[in-house]
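Weekly structure sync, notes
Attendees: PL, DS, HV (note-taker this week)

Item 1: CBS domain-containing protein
DS walked through the input record. Source organism listed as Halonotius terrestris. Sequence as pasted into the shared doc:
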Amino acid sequence: MSTPSVTDVMTTPMLTLAADTPIDEAARAMGEADIKSLVIVGEGCQPDGIFTSTDALEVLADGEVPADATVDEYMTTPVKTISPETTLTDAAERMQNYSHLPVTDADGDAVGILTKTDLAAAVADSDTEITTVGDDE
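Item 1 (cont.): predicted structure, written out as tokens:
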């Protein structure tokens, strides 16, 4: 049995937009796709940032007009990424501080996204037997 990796559970395809996309358009795209993040790509398909539902809330909290602000003003950058070959154990450890990580290939191009929801689904779908320490039955 092989060790499960990011490629086994990552979400593909992922939603990507350009940095100059207006916030209202980005939020609408996220709502239509029923997702909480999108990857902002630049040259090729390399991630320049990540825009999340939390970033969209910040726009409102700042009193900005969503049609007048662009994603690059609120996206998280530099973006942290993860390799598709990373084991799920290592990915779970790395994601303690992140909810969404773009998955990039050896060339740095985005090939998917890994979310905490993806990891939770992997745990739910696993055949791992869960035991309680000290359970003698």
